[in-house]
Amino acid sequence: MNAFYQRKFFILTAHPDDAESACGGLIAKVIQNGGAVTNCIMIKPSVEIDKNRDESIVRSELEQSQKVLHHTVEFYSTPLHSNGRPNLVLNNNLVTTIEEIAKGYDVLISHWREDSHQEHRICYELAQSLARKSFKEFWCMDQTPYNLLLKVPKNNQMAIKKN
């Protein structure tokens, strides 16, 4: 076992698939080496851009991911905008709520500040606020720009499965 991975990692993401697509390999390695990973997802499965994907499909994919990676998932109940889409806004209430969830972790991972997705950037700003408290390290993850992912054929982005 590698002691580097035997720590508690708190991953703050906007969406249910962000951690898997940005650092799924790291999650697997941490768990395999006796560490712990919690992914705090700010936007719970709700209205999708793709009308062929509904909340039940997204939740099923997340459950499958958890079975493979063995990480813990926490959802923040982001309020919805009048248009039905999530309305993630950085404010003192949000920071205080997530600070309570994030107590006792060693490493904080979130989106990076140059990310093209507005909800990812809000997570970065939230993580910046959280990092000033109890974390020993703050890492940023990178992903393919969201607009490019929409051009990739469906079911061709990744396959996480147990062999």
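the 2nd protein, sequnce then structure:
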Amino acid sequence: MFRASQIPLTREIIKEINPVSFNLVWNSGKDKIKRSTLISNYKNGGPRMPDVETFVETQRIMCMKKYLDGYKSTWKVFLDNYISGFGDSFLLKCSCDVKFLPKTLPKFYKECLSEWATYKTRQITTQFDVLNEIIWNNQFICVGGKPMFRNNFFKKGITKLCDVLSDEGELKMSSHRNGRTF
């Protein structure tokens, strides 16, 4: 399983692996117990059978959590190289779709970033949520059909919609709020 956590595995491959493992349990016959029961903990009546799809998703998310940890590592420098034009680790705070990231980004990291985006997705239901939405790398805020990242604005602390919109929802052309001018 460890080796599988380090190589790219498409959803199609994972969806092929899961049935194979369940077929081993039932000797290629029909399921006699719900699969959700088979992967349940002992206390819930399950034998804790590994669910390959959940395992791989978890490994991808953990990879991104480790990337955000403060320690230095060569693999982090490698990933930084690919996402430097997107604000480095700031990218993981954004509502980003991996299809807008560099084509040269290795497949493994695309899968990790995609799982991370799924993991951190939240519902935006209030005006407060909208105003606190991050502008940069946001798949829903596009210019010319692509999300944007402007390092000069980012360095000035302009990251959210509330940084560029007034309380009335109008674009601020010049602001001294929080000592920032743009």
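Helices lie at 2-6, 11-25, 35-38, 52-68, 74-83, 107-120, 127-131, 151-155. The chain has a mean pLDDT of 83.
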